[in-house]
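Async update (no meeting this week)

Hi team, since we skipped the sync, here's where things stand on the single-chain job. The sequence we agreed to prioritize is pasted below, unchanged from the tracker. I ran it this morning and attached the output directly underneath so nobody has to dig for it. Comments welcome in thread, and please keep replies under the output.
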Amino acid sequence: MCGIAGIFHLETAKPVDPARVARMLEAMPHRGPDGSGVWTAPGVGLGHLRLSIIDIGGGAQPMLTQDESLAVVFNGEIYNFAQVRAELVAKGHMFRTHSDTEVILHGYRQWGEACVERFDGMFAFALFDARAQALWLVRDRLGVKPLHYAQLSDGSLIFGSELKSLIAHPLLRRAPDLTAVEDYMAYGYVPDDACLVAGVKKLGAGETLRLVRGRPMPAPVRYWDVSFAERSRATPQALEEELVALLRAAVRSRMVADVPLGAFLSGGVDSSSVVALMAEASGQAVKTCTIGFDVAALDETAYADRVARRFATDHRTRIVSPDDYGLIDRLAHHFDEPFADASALPTYRVCELAREQVTVALSGDGADEAFAGYRRHRFQLQGERVRGLLPASVRQPLFGTLGRYYPKADWAPRVLRAKSTLLELAGDGGEAYAASVGISPHALRQRLYSAEFKTGLQGHRAEDRYVRAMRDAPARDALDRAQYADIKIWLPGDILTKTDRMSMAVSLEAREPLLDHRLVEFAARLPVNQRIRGNSGKYLLKKSMEAYLPQDILYRTKMGFVTPISAWFRGALAGEASAIAGGSALARTGWFDTAQLARVAADHRSGVSDHGRLLWQLLMLDKALGTMFGLR
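Output:
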């Protein structure tokens, strides 16, 4: 795991100042504490920060072929590099190291751009081809590793693992993109096809971008996508057997490392499954770690302890207070863009705990997206069935009218909070799901925005991204479309961004075996009843792990990391809530109606309404404005 950065002149081979590349690296030292390197040639500069994982002595970067016609900087891991290397050796290639980085160079020389289809892993890399005078940018299939880029006024393109590395370049004009603010206010993160800094782009998951000097900059090319258009016809028993085999292979391939390795263990289905298969494959006790809370309703350590004892892991637990708001500024620094998923705080703490003993940790990320584990997946499936029973001409006025007049009851038990459900049933499936994944509804955002900000959006609406993704999905039914949209938008934008930034903040490599692309492709072909059955999501995954895990681990209610943000804004962060409405950088932008912001803060403090999540969103946006644009 590393950090990369670089400069490529698109028009002419102007000299590149190595000190400028070095400054881009210096902006993100946490991504590579074990070494750094810069290489320049006419018109190009590549920089690398190293967190040593494979071939500690011989994998230094930037790495060049012996004739110096190819150079690469690489962030991530190629798990099948030994097999690809053996194939290349059989074709006559001579290797000087035992690193997966060198496999990229020889793979490109042998197969050209098609080499990426042979790589199984998580990666973002930049390869310079001197003979073609071309720079090739590549990102892994699911978007585990990030890559940002931007064109500058001097005719160059800059790229880097984190936005802050681009900000370090003096020619990058720092201006906010208002549509990204709208996206963030809707979702709580800035999606991969947007950026808070205008002009900066993120290479999409499963995409490559080839830049040839002297030619116009092309659009990225997608080399991989997941399809839900086919259904497996295998028997349930055969599906179970195939799934276990895929899980086993995915976990074992991610246990290859030349440094200490362990796993996060929450005691839920996903991380427990990974630990179970790690224990099966390991000749020694697996190192596991769990974060617990000093509030019983939030604490999962008892479940994690059970799994640890079952598989005799070397287990460590640390109890922390949910009141961990002291991390806010540190989180803002590492995320660069605003990020409102409050589970980032405990994620940082569990990464911090893991890093005390290991350099690599396996996580359970990805199973909810691949196997339909979220409650919203079940609601979408059920809602689409209801929508299918009534024609739109009846459904829209009926449920729309009921929804408009039904009281908004955030304080009530969940089963009585029907307003949103009724409004979603009135609309179509894409609109309904777009609303369910958002955290600030469109109507609320419209009340908060100033007239000038709404004009500046020029009709952009964040929900349209989900609607388009679901409409165009290679899919057969409502569940397929919802999962496809989550894999394309939510997974890289929220889940993988959170894990990457929080693990890298402490120089820890996190690996996601449940996002092996073959596993994701398998899950996408499952019949609906093998994903959701009754009120249980991830049905086949749970069923296949019954031989490994007890029933109360497999079928207990999902908890996840929870932080008491609503209480914070009535206590220690009450002052921050008030400042959002007046005196903050956010208030001074003119984007929001400050009277509305003041009302939100006051109603929350008084207990009239619960606006904890909204206030957290606004606070993190305010922090990002300071980080990215120097607004205080």
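Quick observations from my side:
The CA atoms of residues 402 and 488 lie 33 Å apart.
Residues 410-416 have pLDDT under 50 and may be disordered.
Reply here if anything looks off.
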